[in-house]
Write a structure and sequence with these properties.
This protein is mostly beta strands and 171 residues long. It is 0% helix and 53% strand. The chain has a 4-stranded antiparallel sheet with strand order 4-5-6-7, with no helix packed on it. The protein has a 4-stranded antiparallel sheet with strand order 8-9-10-11, with no helix packed on it. Strands 12-13-14-15 form a 4-stranded antiparallel sheet, with no helix packed on it.
Length: 171
Amino acid sequence: GGNTNFAFVFEVNDDGLFLTTINDDNRVRLTSAKGNSIHIEPRWSPDLDPDSYGYQGMIAYTEISDGTSDLYVVNPDGSGNRLVREAVGGTGTAWTRNGKEIVLAQFNTRIVAIDVATGDLRILWDDIDNVGPSVGDVTLSPLGLLAFYRDSDVFLVDYWLNADGRIEVDP
């Protein structure tokens, strides 16, 4: 059959991310959280061809420590663990379909895209409708829809990748 691997949050004395098979017969430690930090929301990058941007098969995750959330990526064997951007102020990450950027709801008021290679941040949508309820859990469909929730409502927005391979939206 197909690929039976998945990433999950697991606690044994310390928090960290592990990769395991559905049968739990080949557990690999991906990260080890230190101190009061936790590693959450592992997200697989899209399956891309080998000529892609070089992030095929990577796992993005959020580290929360001392009230800040930092964005990291790691390879499925635990190697290549690196910080993409500090203090992203958000969770609910989603990879763009080309694997070049990660989109998330930042500070509960805006949606941003972060370049995986450089850590550069671009605001896609700022202060959504200038209202108070939180914005969160960004999801990208392969068909070009960006979904997020605000308060108890779900919103769908068209998105596309521009000539540079970066995500764009039409608010």
